[in-house]
Amino acid sequence: MSDDRLSRVFAALADPTRRDIVARLADGGDATVGELAEPYAVSVQAVSKHLKVLEDAGLVSRRKDAQRRPVHLEADVFDLMTKWIERYRREAEDRFRRLDAVLESLDDERGDPLDAPVGDQAARPAGASRTEEAAS
Amino acid sequence: MSDDRLSRVFAALADPTRRDIVARLADGGDATVGELAEPYAVSVQAVSKHLKVLEDAGLVSRRKDAQRRPVHLEADVFDLMTKWIERYRREAEDRFRRLDAVLESLDDERGDPLDAPVGDQAARPAGASRTEEAAS
DNA sequence: GTGGTATTCAACCCCAAGGTTGAAAATGTG
DNA sequence: CACATTTTCAACCTTGGGGTTGAATACCAC
């Protein structure tokens, strides 16, 4: 469970330590594993694991510099998230606006509400209209 | 670990089924637990648990309508995520621009690079400048 | 080559996450 | 009241995530 890209990204950011690492890379620039591990109470190995998670999610990449592995933040992934979020935020707001319109029209002329089958609050269960396919 | 708000939100969205539920609420409007569970292969109880996770994260709320519990998408949380993402995306880009400037100035006059201690690519380990406090 | 430093690999705990089934709770309906 | 419907609660199982420690790897410095 959770092997698609978005799942990995969200899962990676669900951990405060990993979010903090991202934050530090964002305003501190690239850093080595040791540097990144220093502030935390946990072992270097643990941080190394965290970095692997971030890497698998595509949030960071590791360069190779002698025995050091400087970690670099890949800002592109943010776009992926933003896109997902914005898409559904938008839809939710649109639907909301449509609902407002319906309520208004109901209030006004007290008759059949346009064409949008919005909401169905506590009315008949509708039952068949669900669209599928998890987020692209 | 992971009891703060953002952690719960990201963790909630790390599951494809839960993301799908959010997506369906976003463009289908409120729906009951049964309706939401119908498309999936899993039990209704499992979906009920998913909804609890979403609710604890503040992504949805449940109204009370007889024995049904219509689920409603709380679009506000999206702002929280967007804010977090945008903040660090911005910083990363700023840092990037600053780096460009430094490289440019190095290229130009071949001397001490302004004041911003950007990047330190493979130079001395710097060692002490890390700022703390995980994302608010 | 010997040694020190930086990072990962491997084996191992512990516990929370997602799933199951079965029963209980809450509420409309004959 | 008896019953069907919708949802949650409770107990349980299995898997994976985050942590640990100890060894292996890779590289620079002497």
Automatic annotation (TrEMBL), chains A, B:
Species this protein is from: Yinghuangia aomiensis
CDD domains assigned: HTH_ARSR
UniProt region (Disordered), positions on chain: 108-136
Ranges where the HTH arsR-type domain occurs: 1-93
PROSITE patterns: HTH_ARSR_2
Listed name of the protein: HTH arsR-type domain-containing protein
